[in-house]
Amino acid sequence: MYIEKKLINKYISYWLIAVFIAVSIMIVVGGLTRLTDSGLSITEWELFSGILPPLNSSQWNDYFNLYKKIPEYQLQNNSMSLDEFKVIFWWEFIHRFLGRLIGILFLIPLLFFSFKLGLFETMNFYFIFMLICLQGFIGWYMVSSGLVDKVDVSHYRLALHLTLAFIILSLIFWNYLSYVNIEKLDHKINNFLPYLFILLLFIQIIIGAFVSGMDAGKIYNSWPLMGSTYFPDDNKIINLFNLTAFGDPSLVQFMHRNLAYIILLLYLYISFKVYRLKLTKYFKILKIVGSLLAIQILLGVFTLIYGAQILLSSMHQVSSIFLVTSSVYYLYLNTKTN
């Protein structure tokens, strides 16, 4: 019985890392879908009927005609040809296809492991599955915000969609760590600092989604100053304290820049404490987190300087996956001491 459970746990770890990779790819494809302005190319929910792509010219024209009814086409892309439409369609189709695939990839093994281990031991996985289903609904909730009166989706809904994706990714990785042999450490720093670091990363993800959703990375393409000043000269500092600040592109870019500096300072403080206490077993993971944080900041700077080019913007998002994952690993180590 013990050997069988150990083997099942091993299979669970393989399953979780496979889903983790799939969700990571989903985040990257989702980012590219946004960067290529492809997210509104499919204007209907199509939970089941959209599993297959258009198979003939009639079906392609049906999709294209539906797209022609929304503001993005009428106000921005009214000269688009069918062949050009197909490019943005495929990005959104692949994004939705991956969402369905992740749901199946998660549910079928979950039912098997529930049968083997019982419902109680797999309850946390059902919570993750519920979040995956919720993510699909929020994805449509986001898309629907761009079908009437606007040429883009709501940046608030975009932020919700992206943040939930990172929450799902982090929960999957946390559970994966619990099924592999991680050496427990003897000492830790207080939990507040690692939790604060993770919290700030997630707030940065939210602000980053605001930047993406409002194309705020295409203004003030200079660093370290925003134009000729540190604070954007088209605004007033007092406006930072209004809720409307989250809908102002220059203020959102200012927040995104400066939160990165705060995260860097917190990382340096955590590292200082760890090195001062000589917690040597944390040195390696902190070096990894620090390296990824430096890469993330540099990519953010280059993304700004070069006007949010697709390749740099996508690399910036990819590096955020590695940064969040390594930070979750550090948090896991800090909470699983002897």
Describe this structure in words.
There is one protein chain. With 338 residues, the chain is mainly alpha-helical. The protein has helices at residues 2-35, 57-67, 71-76, 82-117, 123-144, 155-178, 192-213, 249-276, 283-305, 310-335. It has two domains: 1-181, no CATH class; 183-338, no CATH class. Helix 7 packs antiparallel against helix 8 and helix 9 (283-305) packs antiparallel against helix 10. The chain is flat and about 65 Å long. The relative contact order is 0.11.
In round numbers, the mean pLDDT is: 91
Number of domains: 2
Stretches with pLDDT under 50, minimum 5 residues: none
Order of SSEs: HHHHHHHHHH
Number of strands: 0
Tally of contiguous helical segments: 10
Cα separation of the termini: 27 Å
- Name the structural class: mainly alpha
Largest sheet: none
Calculate Rg over CA atoms.
Answer: 22 Å
Tell me the strand percentage band.
under 5%
Bulk shape: flat
Share in helix: 55-70%
Write a concise synopsis of the structure shown.
With 338 residues, the chain is mainly α. Helices cover 69% and strands 0% of the residues. The radius of gyration is 22 Å and the shape is flat.
